[in-house]
Amino acid sequence: MAPSARELLTRLAPDFPARHVGELYDDTTEFMRIGYGDVMVLGERHFLVLRDEAERRFGMEDPKYWVKRCRCLETGGRNIVKLVFHENFPMTIGSMVVTCTRSPRKETRILDLVRGDPRFMQGETIYDAADNPVRILDLVAGKRLDEKIEALEMPHRDYFHDLFPTVLERFIEACQAIKWLHDRNEKHGDVRRDHLYVLHDSGQYCWIDFDYTFDFQESPFGLDLFGLGNIIQFLVGMGQHTTQSISPALRAQITSDDCSIMFPNRIVNLQKLFPYIPLEMTNVLRRFSLAAEVYYDTAGELIDDLCRARQALGRNGI
């Protein structure tokens, strides 16, 4: 007879409060039922659930009930455990519609592909008793890039001259990691600024979360590229700039052509706010604007233009 959760925790985690001991699950299909104090049986290991994970976006907490912060009872290590949750939804980019789908098996494939590559989060997939592909992820020893940028307390000019060249170099390396996936006919699927971390030990940028895929008829990898565009806008601007956040005097100079094709209130022609941004960088940003007539087809094209922008920073003595 399999041990109960109470027996397991008494033996492997005697410090855990007895009053919070839950149930034992080897089938994780009903993930909403699994919570704090429950134990998941995955292969030869047992994972004590500590809490549901959540994403903080637009100033709000978005709970992810299928993603659990856990402690492995055998090793004592902490892991993120992602259970199976399927969803799909349309995304509109200008006049184009992209169908996005959450695919646990696609994320399993990517985790196998990037094993040992520090540019990507690491983990493995174990199938539960109901054959659900449960992804057991290592915690990323780093901090979100956007949070590090937002925490800076300095004028934009100083940031752009002193820090941004290094930020850009590392972001180019992160773009090369996405190109590496594309060259193998794979997509990240959910390229966002909160999915890019800075590793504490090396300063290298590391991508997380690969469980989305998308069907974009106009461009096989287009959604990844637009995601990279959103991030570079944020990095160049040292944060997000919208038509609502700027002064009335500056707002009078902004037209719809200066704004993002994905988020029409976000300003991408940042040279109008910061005139010292070189033309080479402005040309990159405007490829993601409502005025753009040509978009990037490949990550390689974007990387080439970003490298030219980096060289322009050097020519300007930055």
Automatic annotation (TrEMBL):
SUPFAM superfamilies: Protein kinase-like (PK-like). InterPro entries: Kinase-like_dom_sf. This is Serine/threonine protein kinase. It comes from Solidesulfovibrio magneticus (strain ATCC 700980 / DSM 13731 / RS-1) (Desulfovibrio magneticus).
